[in-house]
Amino acid sequence: MNTDSNHNAHSCGSECHNYTQLSQNPLTMTRRYFFGKAAKGLGGVALASLLNENLLGASADGNGLPGLPHFAPKAKRVIYLFQSGGPSQLELFDYKPQLNKLHGQEVPASVFNGQRLTGMTAGQSSFPVARSVYDFKQVGESGMWMNTELLPHLAKVADDLCVIKSMHTEAINHDPAITYFQTGFQIAGRPSIGAWMSYGLGSENENLPAFVAMTSSGSGGGGQPLYDRLWGAGFLPSKHQGVKFAGGKDPVLYLNNPDGMSSEVRRKTLDHIAAMNRMKFDDYGDPEIETRISQYEMAFRMQTSVPELTDVKSEPESTFDLYGEDAKKPGSYANNCLLARRLVERGVRFVQLFHRGWDAHANLPRTESRQSKDTDQPTAGLIQDLKQRGMLDDTLIVWGGEFGRTVYCQGDLTPVKYGRDHHPRCFSMFMAGGGIKPGMTYGETDEFSYNITENPVSVHDLHATILNQMGVNHKKLTYKFQGRHYRLTDVHGKVVKPILS
Fold first, then answer.
1. What's the angle, vertex CA 349, arms to CA 343 and CA 353, rounded to 5?
2. pTM (2 d.p.)
């Protein structure tokens, strides 16, 4: 149990809901009574001008917790480019030329060392080595190895990247693995990393949420389902859940006024609803009622801010030279990358893009080439765009999936066609900007890219490092729920200091 927290924020599940309402209502009523009365006189005006608003704690407008950040942050915002399905480290970043000699031979039993396999390959009688069909080159002043066939644009910004080749995870199947990366736990129900950011740090723009999520489907075909809980608030107040932006005419559903309703009528309607909700809050003290009020108000303000935000027609043609022509197509990965820049430019704290289609159990070369074509230029364009705007230094970019792929072939092995199964033991991700050392690789794997040989980095370590760059001590950002103080990194995690600038 973590005891580092010095605050007593609470949320309630069904088991303790009524108890918490009754126990907190007198305190809430007293606080509301004082400020409500004080605000009616000149004394209230003087008090408001003298008090530091951060001393009042987390407020309904999303200003975050008092005392955060814990120390000076290197990054003000995060853009997390989640590649759903598990990109193959063997095809992208983890160069293993010796596999050319071992192609078609059985992977030695000593490499497996009794590690579990998925149900899709556990029954195979043969586990032949599959070399990559792609050539790698050393790129940038750092000389890091990269697949320049699939990632020609990222190769040009290699000196801005920190490639971590020693990531590992506990989950071996998609849903628990994706859930683990988003929440620090394999079972659904805990807050997502963006929700933790919103809860702790709040937003810098009152007209936009602190946390935005966007999804896109790749050309690789299919893809794992992406549930709203992946950007959910879990047991945190629900105002901290990510707001999903969709492609198309209405990026935020139900944001626009219904036919026949003017903004003035909607404003009056919201005022009356808020008044009734406040009466109900005075009776019950349920924090979710305050959330409802604040979210109605946020939606009203977003009616003005979102249309301007999502209209990329005002961007010069040079922007689309960076991101590619697909950036003009709502719902595409390229368009989402451009929107991510526009969101963080306007003060959104945490933006997460989910791109489906990386799962490659059969014809992996075809899948990887299509997915890379979708993502290579927009990702590199985002990095270049932020850099030329002077924003890369304080914007943290994270790129990666839920696990990697196996060195052995799943299914039939041919000279040009092969598949790879899920592999949680080692895989590659990269980070850029936000106080991360550029132009370096961290961690090493064995000759089969099957086991880590140097500097392992866990999911909890990654989360601790992301929070650290935002000025947050991952051990101190906690929330008390059902009698226990929870945190994103649970009781694990350490900051990966060697990659920090």
1. 60
2. 0.83
Report residue 62 as tokens. 């999303």
**β-pair partners for 423:** 404
Q: How far is CA 202 from CA 53, 351, 379, in A?
A: 13, 13, 26
User: What is the 8-class DSSP label of residue 56?
Assistant: G
Q: Phi first, then psi: what are they for 165, rounded to 5°?
A: -95, 0
Q: Render the burial of 433-447: b for 16+ CB within 10 Å, e for the rest.
A: bbbbebbbbbbebee
Mean pLDDT by 10 residues, the chain (501 residues): 41 39 46 47 40 38 83 98 98 97 96 91 94 96 97 98 98 97 98 98 90 93 90 95 84 67 72 80 79 67 73 94 97 97 96 97 96 98 98 98 98 93 98 98 98 98 98 98 96 97 96
Phi/psi zone of residue 269: left (φ > 0), alpha (ψ -120 to 50 degrees), beta? alpha
Residue 323 near residue 379 (C-beta atoms within 8 A): no
Instruction: Please name the residue that has the structure tokens 């809860």.
Output: 199
At 488, which amino acid appears? L
Are 125 and 402 a contacting pair, CB within 8 Å?
A: no
Look-up of token digits 């990887």: 368
Rg, C-alpha atoms of the chain: 24
Looking at residue 246, what DSSP letter applies? P
Tell which residue, 182, 118, 41, 21, has the closest CA to residue 406: 118
With beta carbons less than 8 A apart as the criterion, state whether 381 and 153 touch: yes
Question: Quick one: three-class SS letters along 370-426?
Answer: HHHHHHHHHHHHHHHHHHHCCCHHHEEEEEECCCEECCECECCCCCCCCECCEECCC
Structure-token pair, residue 352: 């997460």
